[in-house]
Amino acid sequence: MKATYLYNFSRFVEWPAKAAPAQGDSFAICVLGEDPFGPALKATVEHETIAGKSVVTRQVPAPQDAVNCRVLFISASEDKRLKEILTNLGTSSVLTVSDLPRFTQRGGMVQFVLEGNRVRFEVNTATAERAGLTLSSELLKVALNVRKSGQIGD
Amino acid sequence: MFSFQDCSIPKRLTRMNMLVSGTALLLASAGFFVYDLYNFRAGIVLNLGIQAQIIGSNSISAVLFDDPHSAEITLSALQAAPRVMSAEIYTPDGQPFAEYRRDRGESRAPPLKIPSGETQAYRFQSGEVGLVRLIVFHGKPVATVYMRSGLGAMHERQRSFALIVATVFLMSLLAAAWMSSVARQSIAEPIVRLAKTAQIVLGEKDYSVRAPVNGERNEIAVLIASFNEMLAQIQERDAALGEAHNRLEQQVQERTAQLKAANADLEAFSYSVSHDLRAPLRHIGAFSQILSEEYDSKMEPGARQHLNRILAGVKHMSRLIDDMLKMAQIGRKELVRVTTDLNFLLREVLVDLQPESGGRQIDWRIGNLSSADCDAGLVRQVLMNLLSNALKYSRRREIAVIEVGQVQQEGVSVIFVRDNGAGFDERYAHKLFGAFQRLHRAEDFEGTGVGLSTVQRIIRKHGGEIWAKGEVDKGATFFFSFAAKGQDRVHTNKAMAGG
Hints:
The complex is a heterodimer of chains A (154) and B (499). Helices cover 23% and strands 29% of the residues of chain A.
């Protein structure tokens, strides 16, 4: 479910035109840290295109490698390195998504939240804006919570 | 429905007008109605499709991120659309995701199937329309929206449409009625007037009547003018006919008078001639008789023979003169009509004829005759003549059969005298009654040829007819009546008179 969401988010986010990916015509959805999705993510994005670019999934070992990703899922295993990761990304136009608690308060953009057995999410538009990303109102409409301020921190 | 059979023309015109305009209007209304219904339905479907698309588009993120609540908020906007009864959003795998119901108690209707390749399907049924629309996001089906809308608006529209049609229909019929009353004045009324005129002409035989013309220039005016022209021609012809008739009548009267005068002259002449011929004839007879008696012995046989011839000739001529005088007398004599018993008359004649029939074998077959209103003396001559003829021409028969009787022919009593004598050739029947005309040689049967002519005169003077039938050697039958019979008889009579 989260794998699908990860892909669906990219439908409601606008990247700036200058965000030129290093890997040519591909649209990269990257996972940093332990991959919780398994083959589900790859299966979800297979044969999909976004804005004429074919969607690919990638496992990135270091935060530096993530700057060319469009979407970056930060695994729960990276809890300790979160601040470092976010700092490394800086204002790169990368949509950050994570399961980590208080992710949106700690400088992340989209955080999965479990409500009962349903997967919901909350967003921080301020951090997204700082990275040059525009979150569609459609996305905000279904977000559990929309934060509008926040710094990178604990 | 209307019956066109026994209606007057104005009524027919009115009915036809009403029928035509009514039919045209009904057809037009039906056409408009169907067109409008079709259009309106198409409009409803379009509208509902757009609404479904808007709802669906606004619910894409809700479906993708599993947020039915958000979708329900979107759906609740349909409260502004009063006709929408319900709207439901289904996930692509057919699971209900979110719904909106105007009326809480309503049960969920099963959504329609969208045919493959289409993005929308709809169905009209029992006062509502159901529409299902596929919502596609980036080339992928994301959801289907199923909406149901009431058709109250359509029914309202149909009702107002029906009201308008009824109003227009009524007004058109009124207009048609008014127009036909105008048509009645210009078309039907002249025809009705013409018909009335024709009836007057027929009923009263008055050809001076004219159908009124009202200054129009159309076929009806031509008809009326022709009718009047015809009447004028008939009138003219009548007048000409009347004039010709009068002229003819006058001519007939003139000719009759001339003829009467000529006849009278002729009779007077023949009478005087006959009368005047008698004296010299008597002298010839008397002196011939003296010669024959006093110089009988002195005459040579040749002279004696000549003298006998002279005596016979004098005798014959004397009889001729007698007959002619008799005939002339009949022409001058006035009829004295008395009711006469013809049986009595016949018996007298038979007694008188006894000398002629004496010594012969005769089978008399005398029937019963009626009485007649006639001149007894003249009719006696008729019977005498016919019976003596019958005796004369049957004298060569060993047994003469002479029959007298009376029959009814064409409502008229006809008396006949039949014999089995020499008869005659019917080809010359017309000559029978001519004066001095004889069908037999004097050597065979003596006679002057005046008898039947006299008989005919007498019968005609009575206003009756006489005719004969016969065949050579098979006898003859003479018929006479005191009144004219049918037309054909008269015709034959004329033919006889002509001879």
